Amino acid sequence: MNANPTFPVDTDMPTQHSALSQWLKKRRWFLIFVALPTLLAMLYYGLIASDIYVSESRFVIKSPDQKRGQTSTLANLVQTTGLSGGQEQTNEVLTYVRSRDALKALEKNVDVKDKFATSQADMLSRFPLPFSDNSFESLFKYYGKRVDALMDTEAGTAVIKVEAFTPQDAYIINRQLLDLSEALVNRLNERARTKGIVEAQRQVDLATQRARNSRISLAQYRNAKSLIDPEKQAVGVLEISNSMIGERAALQAQLDIMQRLTPNNPSIPAMRDRIKAISVQISSQDSRIVGTGSGIASQLGGYENLLVEQEFATESLTSANAALVQARAEAQRQQFYLERVVDPNTPDTPLLPKRFINILIVFAASLCLYFIVWMFAIGILEHAPED
Questions:
Q1: pLDDT band at 6, cuts 50/70/90?
Q2: Cα–Cα distance between 294 and 338 in angstroms, integer?
Q3: CA–CA separation, 161 vs 171, rounded Å?
């Protein structure tokens, strides 16, 4: 009987370890480029990634001009042209929501940094992100990833989407952004109204000054020329001259008769003197009208120019005052207003991250990278010189 019995030895174990190591070595690049990233993605999205809640609101910007009926008159046609639907204002609001100014205004009422840096978020999602600091610029970049403002062309509405790590935070930020957007529209309205009134008032001031200058110039001209109304004065002078011409003609006829019938009449010299005096007066009156230096006719041109300027300035002042009244009436009503189509909601369930889809994306991207590297390596080996 053998005192040292022998036990069976498992000679397959070294073979199995060798086969496993060879299999791993053969597929090491696939494991590094595909299996490992996919495993890490499964661990992160399956166990670590925090839930993200999305709050959405929708709005449109309208103008009261949209409710006016279309008529065939040219004035209404001009009024109905342009962006009466508020498209330009909508783009301005969406740009504002995505801007630094909106973030600064938001921080005054909501502690945005604290809500994005909550402990409920995982370290790869919360603010500040890895390799980032705690500055406002970093916060703005993070804000751009969590807040989106866009135009839904199919529905014709503007959309504000806010991502946060709790439903309440997403709702609060979205509601505050919507309030800020409405305040911006009101400021744009106020700016437009103020600009219209200021411009209309400036035109009134210019027209008033022009009318005042025209009146002063006309008064100075009258004082300098000793004329009140050259046209009326010229008519009066002509009437006087015509009456004297008639009187002279009658005296001349009487003188002719006397010289023919009673040539020795002692009143003939006196009548001749009277006719001569009347002729002098007629010449004097004519010189008042057509005199080269001081005649009314020479002064009438300058007077008419000043009078036309005064009338035009008065009409301009009347038109400017009417425009000012219209601008003030226009300012009494709101030009554009923000109408909330969908108020900010408090999400019930998290919409992000899309865990399964993100894992598939990581797997597909890793697989594509693996095949690219594999094909590149094959190409190099095929063209390598053989030793």
A1: very low
A2: 70
A3: 10
Query: Facing residues of 60 across strands?
Result: 339
Amino acid at 207: A
Contact 207, 312 (CB under 8 A): no
Burial 263-283 (b: 16+ CB within 10 A, else e): eeeeeeeebeeebeebeebbe
pLDDT digit string, tens, across residues 36-68: 999 999 999 999 999 999 999 999 998 765 544
CB 81 within 8 A of CB 156: no
Given a cut of 90, whether residue 93 has pLDDT beyond it is yes
- Helix runs in the chain, H state only: 13-26, 28-30, 36-43, 74-79, 87-97, 100-109, 112-116, 136-146, 167-225, 230-261, 268-290, 296-331, 355-382
> By three-state DSSP, how is residue 57 classified?
strand
Q: Which residues pair with 147 in a beta bridge?
A: 162
Say how many CA atoms lie within 13 Å of 118 toward its Cβ. Answer: 16
CB 229 within 8 A of CB 310: no
Q: Distance between alpha carbon 93 and the CA centroid of its chain, in Å?
A: 11
C-alpha distances in Å from residue 322, one per residue of 79, 192, 196, 325: 18, 19, 13, 5
Q: Compute the distance between CA of residue 142 and CA of residue 129 in angstroms, rounded to an integer.
A: 8
Contact 309, 216 (CB under 8 A): no
Tokens of 64: 């009261």
Encode pLDDT of 265-320 as tens digits. 888 888 888 888 888 887 776 666 665 555 565 566 677 787 788 888 889 989 98
Q: Distance between CA atoms of 190 and 286, rounded to whole angstroms?
A: 65
Residue 1's pLDDT is what?
44
Output the CA torsion sign for 380, 382, 385, 386: positive
Distance of CA 182 to the CA centre of its chain: 15
